[in-house]
Amino acid sequence: MKSTLLVLFVFLQSTISFAQSGGTGLRGTIKNAQGEALPYAAVVVKGTPSGTITNAEGRYEIALAPGKYTIVFQYLGFQTVQKSVDIETGFTTLDATLEEQALRLAEVEAKAGNEDPAYTIMRRAIAKSRFHQLQVQRFKARVYTKSSFTVTDLPNLAEMAFRKQLKEAEKEANFKVGVPLLNETVAEVSFSQPNTYRQRIIANRNSQGDFLSPNQFYNASFYNPTIANTVSPLSPKAFAYYKFEYKGTFRETGPDGKAIEISKIQVIPRQYGEGVFRGSIYIIENTWAIHSLQLETINNIGVSFTIRHVCTPIQGVWMPTNQRYNGSGSYLGVKATGYYIRNLTFTEFVVNPAFVEDIEVADEKKGPPTTTLSKGDIKGKQFDELVKKQKEFSTKNLKQLVKEYEKQEKQARKSRKEDVTVMRDDSLVVDSLARKRSNTFWDSLRSVPLTSAEVKSYRKADSLGLVREIKAPGTDTTKRDTTKKKNPNRFSPGQLISGNTWRLSKQSSLIYTSPITRIEYNTVEGYSLEGALTFRYRARVDSVNRFRQIPLGEWTLGGTGRYQFGRKQFVGYGQAGYQYKNTRVNLSGGRYLYQFNPDNPISPFLNSLTTLLFEQNFAKLYQKDFLNLTISATPFRQRLNLSSSLEYAQRSELANYKEDLKPWINWRNRVYTANRPENAELVNTGFLTHNALVFNLTASARLGATQYTIRNGRRTALRDNDSPLLTVNYRKGINGLAGSDVDYDFLQATISHSFETGIRSRLNYQIGAGAFLTDKQLYFPDFKHFAGNQFFFQQGDVVSTFRLLPYYQYSTGKRFVEGHVLGEFRKLLVTQLTLVRLIGLKENLFVHYLYTPNSQHYTEIGYGLDGLIPQVFPFFRVEVISQWQDAKYQGLGFRIGTTLKFGR
């Protein structure tokens, strides 16, 4: 049956290919003088929006109506060729041979002791970069993208362990080591100033069978100061990171038929590694726009990327219509290569009226312009009015002009009631027929012909899909396929062990967490099992597109149960919650065990390991019978985060469930400690069972303007907002009501900030202070506790966590000041070596400080090396820390750490 289907499939393919021989257009091959194919060369139909690029075999094909055309062939590093062609009926063949570009040195060739002429070129290009970005008012384009991803090698252990799964993947999903996974997308893209991007996928096809999200390269621009966290050669900060060398100039015909001069500039990073490029950029003389570029960089896990752009003039604006990205590297032992190509055909293009007139830029370091403007001459003036009066500006004046223009535009947007805090407004819509397009439809859209290898890969994928879809009743194939398929909403005994989520309807689901997945151990409970069951209901309304649905509300109702084998008791709690937009109300109550530090300085999973393997029971627990009401909201467009809670609890001290506890490994110099924490402020941290009514209020906000992105209608605050975050917390123990025994007022404030200090360099700090304003009656659970660590493996926030501080030694019921500073450096000690930077290692220095009445100015000073095992386990780090009190050295410690969190 399978062989019959394959024969039928090949026949259909042949029939389709024959049918495609109709139509009119142009096809051919582009080669160099040695007869070698030039892959991904640009083919532009002069005077029209039509264009394409060649495939990996140097072949191109473009549909054109009968008529006379001038065809422009471009390839980076080669002379541009123009050819005239007369298309009548059918496809006309037009081949081209490109010669390597011969560079000539300009008359300004550098002499000994003189500045390289590349610097005056780059100063002008940098000064005019924002001008070129603002030139485009809006556009619409048909965008064709093709990407390929190939796993070239797997670790031997992975191949041995997953041999069966790899065979099934090859059979079912067309995946195999060494065979490329292809993806093609045709999209209609639109842009309008200042930040609105719309994308509609009208066709998508790939050789694996699953939809791959289109890449977001369509809005990348080297006129931006950074691209994917890498400094652009046209950034205002470029001279701090790059050296430039002039390599020569060549001439070609411009869009108006006149000759233009193009200079090749070598981009040389002062220190190569993550965050910088190296390669060549071609700048057009006088306009100082990008003509083309070839640059490479490396990311933080050691993957190398090569980027090639070829620009085409669209209504006088040079736009990157031909783009190619190549990547290769390895991660966790898996080696892979890939490429991504993109071709734009503009259907609408509108130039910003204020930037229609081109202007000249004078490099004041070489010679000042005829007229220099003051700030007063520029302030309040219209950009186009000044340009009409004066055609040449200094680089400084041009930056001031553009800044004033953007200021005026922002004010105009405010007056139109537009939200100026939105930095990007994107939307992505996928046509319902995108994955169902026929081969005939694809060949009418595809602007880059498939290679023979790609055709073969698609045929195999389509044949696999055909075999899966067309099944003969009663055959073995049908039986195997139906038995493999499982209904995720059907109950099976195995789900009691693994856990499961059952979709009861479109709005409701039942989530079950198996106790087997939460087996823990501590000296208070012994072994414990914890399971949970939660019902969730989401009500929604219709929305503009299927990517954004506005919830009317979300209700949750559930419970958590925990059995303690050591205490032979069952504890647990129930909870009910309701959320509307950004406001949530949660009610919970029951009996449960908690760490004295509510931030859980050691996770239950890690504490289980330290207790059983290393005879160190760090977690200290107490019991609460409680009822808690918590309300959280983010008012003022999420500029402020508020969280308040009111809790009534009966709190009880607990002891280890028995005295003669035995670990898995009995360490000679260690014994289990009591469950009562040691503290420098209290001789005895124990307490009698008591009642506590506690009100807690926390508010946090950025001290600067919060910026946002909108993605398919969803508004999200930018993660890289570099404004300081201020958090204020007030906690009150209410005495007298409902028999509450606590009576205190606690107030604390924390400011945290993280900002870049250079490429791959960042400074992070957090400073906090607080005090008990009144302390008539409080117990150890009410104390202020700190993020300590006593185990050699350190996890959690690397900025605010102490490395050597005992968990509860300096917990205080009085007052405190704590400070944390961590500097991440691209170049410090071992990272001075280029090879070390290239494999992704990063160094940091940190200081942690704590003042309480008994802490004796506790201080930690440390050095860390991130990326302990490059490209295999890049998320691990090693640290060495010195410990000080009252400026006196106390000792040295070492930590292995990770930013990953294990357990809850």
From TrEMBL:
Signal peptide: 1-19
Alphabetized Pfam families for the sequence: CarbopepD_reg_2 (PF13715), DUF5686 (PF18939)
MF terms in GO: carboxypeptidase activity
Family matches, as InterPro entries: CarboxyPept-like_regulatory (IPR008969), DUF5686 (IPR043741)
Alphabetically ordered keywords of this record: Carboxypeptidase, Coiled coil, Hydrolase, Protease, Signal
Region listing for Disordered, in residue ranges: 470-492
Domain of life: Bacteria
Entry protein name: Carboxypeptidase-like regulatory domain-containing protein
Positions in coiled-coil regions: 391-418
Keyword Protease on entry: yes
KW Flavoprotein (keyword) present: no
